[in-house]
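Example (one chain per record):
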Amino acid sequence: MTVILYFLLALVLLSIIQRFLGSKGVKNISAAELKKELQDNKKQFIDVRTPGEYKGNHIRGFVNVPLNQLPEKLRTCQRIKKQ
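Predicted structure:
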């Protein structure tokens, strides 16, 4: 019984640690860094939230492509036009 409790505790701690480490390949940037990146016209910024979330509040210059539609949109066009 004690072994099972230690195992469950280890799983919980591991999941908490993974949440704080972030996702592989995702880089967090500050607001100042984002402001600088938005100046680059060669880059396109995509907001992958739902349309309702996007309409509620979004950063000017971002295009809304819901996450579940992203693979399809990327296959059909090189650069997603502003909607």
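Caption: The longest strand covers residues 45-47.
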